[in-house]
Amino acid sequence: SLGWALCGGSMLLLFFVVEAGGPPDITFMSLLYFLFGLGFWFADVMADSVVAEKAKLEPEGSRGALQSTCYATRFFALMLFAPISTWLYASHGPTSVILLMGMIPLVVMLPLVFRFREEFHPVVMTPRQQCNEIWKTVCSRAVWQPMGFVYLYNVLQIGNSAWKQFLVTVLGFTSVELNSLLIASYVLLYLGVMAYKYYFIKWSWRKVYIFTTAINGVLSGLQILLIYRITF
């Protein structure tokens, strides 16, 4: 509840500040966006913890189905709200989007938190015991080897910030057109998660990584062709 309250409260504060006296200075706005991100990821970590505990009860034959369902629901919401926010931004300006970002965590997510069944006064290990438990888990090869691979895989996926700049300054993309690309990416994310949930979940995770990395390489190559004006 603290995460969602911080997430929604920071955006509502930004909305009221903009409505009262125009755009805030960069320091204050950066602080509000920092609090927004802090609250969002705090709530996200708690949600992942709940899913991890629930996933322990999954049968052996359907392991991973709960996680893929959560991702499918998340990307479906992104796919739904991306065009809505694009329309709001084009029709009513950025303040309408900021208001939406402030209201949804407080009106939708925060009340749902209180519907969780919580065990009061649970037995909690000391910080030293928790650290020892984490260390024992990390020392297991079944943990550090796949997690190390995932870490290196994500580190090597360097974000190309210059790509968006190229689309705007060279190709003359507008904000609506950039958001249209974002909508298309969310649709493809949703379709990809659903394909994994109902088909690729039976594959070896090695084959999934090789297959998706190959597709990513092809799409990255198409970006290079676009830069050199080689189009089809």
Quick overview of this protein structure:
This protein is an all-alpha fold.
Describe the structure in your own words.
Helix content is 78%, strand content 0%. The chain is globular. The protein contains 9 helices and no strands. 9% of the residues are buried. Helix 3 (65-92) runs antiparallel to helix 8 (175-198). The termini are far apart. The chain has helices at 2-21, 26-55, 65-92, 94-113, 127-138, 141-155, 161-169, 175-198, 205-227. By secondary structure, it is mainly alpha-helical. The longest helix has 30 residues, at 26-55.
| Secondary structure category | mainly alpha
The poorly predicted ranges are none
Count the E strands.
0
Measure the end-to-end span. 50 Å
Give the CA-based shape: globular
* Element-level helix/strand string: HHHHHHHHH
Q: What is the percentage of strand-forming residues? A: under 5%
Q: Compute the number of helices.
A: 9
How large is the radius of gyration? 21 Å
The proportion of residues forming helix, as a percent range, comes to over 70%
Largest sheet: none
